[in-house]
Amino acid sequence: MTTSCIIRGLGHCVPENRLTNADLERMCDTNDEWITTRTGIKERRIASEGETTVSLSHQAALMALDNAGMKAEDLTHILVATFTPDAYIPSAACMLADRLGIKGRTCMDISAACSGFLFALETARAYVCLHPEAKILVTATDVVSSRVDYSDRSICVLFGDGAGAAIITGAGADFPNGSGRVLDVMLATDGSAHDLLTVKGGGSGSPVKPGGIVSRDFFVQMNGREVYKYAVRAMSSICREMLEKHGLTNDEVDVFIPHQANLRIIDAVGTRLEMPTEKIFTNVHKYGNTSAASVIIALSEARQEGVIKDGNLVLLSTFGGGFTWGSALVRF
Ligand code: UT7
Asked: 131 and 237: one domain?
């Protein structure tokens, strides 16, 4: 039985439209100095009208397919990790299949907030165990701006929009140039912390009535301090567990890609893991927190820019609402 999987192609897409700290200074009571020192974010990309989770996923998917030397018709499954699908029905995955011009595949969305990519990757890993010939498109995409109240300064400075994609196949004999072997994925959740990071409005627990008012709970709400502390603890401990499980030390990790939520969280996790700064890939300064897309955009960029070289061992880690968190080890 196949026990692991291969990443054959990577892609990403962010909207053209930039929202800088200077722009935010004009929109709410904030300033560049506060945002930069607390988060490390300088700008983020925001979807324009017509840009949605499905359209961004589509662009990222085309890049990943091209990167893998594959066509959409080759795909057997589509998994979309998102908390901002275009609609509740149909799923973003079904809509993405239609954009790609394919039918009859297994398509579904996965909800794990900012940890979405690793939850989808683990699902793909399970699929290739069941169906060794599977060719799976995983996209992790969020248009967080659709659920951000731009008058709430504690939230609006943190998030941006974007999409990442990976083509996953079974770890059979062939390992095309440029591929990455997924050695392991570890996931965890703590539902008792569900109230610390939420988007409740519009769900069955907070239904919107016809003609009703969209209240604050329609937008991202968060206890930033508690999320910060939990995220640092959870990401560092699951990464440590992953390395110990595989008998690895920091020295053997070439590139560490943590969830791009905030530079202070990234630094704190790096310090706890005693990971040298030069091994930690960051792009949070230019995209902000893109939720599910965060680590897959970073992985795709790091590979495209040559930061990740053939033979490199990459450690990924995510954290999000739920709470959900995880880590993955990939050998390129
Ligand atoms: O995927 C996981 C997603 N979550 C995260 O990444 C968030 C994790 N949390 C954090 O990164 C930090 O908690 C924040 C960056 C969100 C906030 O930093 P903090 O050091 O925890 O600040 P705070 O919330 O304790 O607020 C400190 C002060 C407050 O003013 P007072 O009460 O001290 O007068 C806030 O009102 O900063 C004020 N403040 C702001 N000031 C200017 C909050 N947001 C802003 C802002 N601009 N945008």
From this structure: no
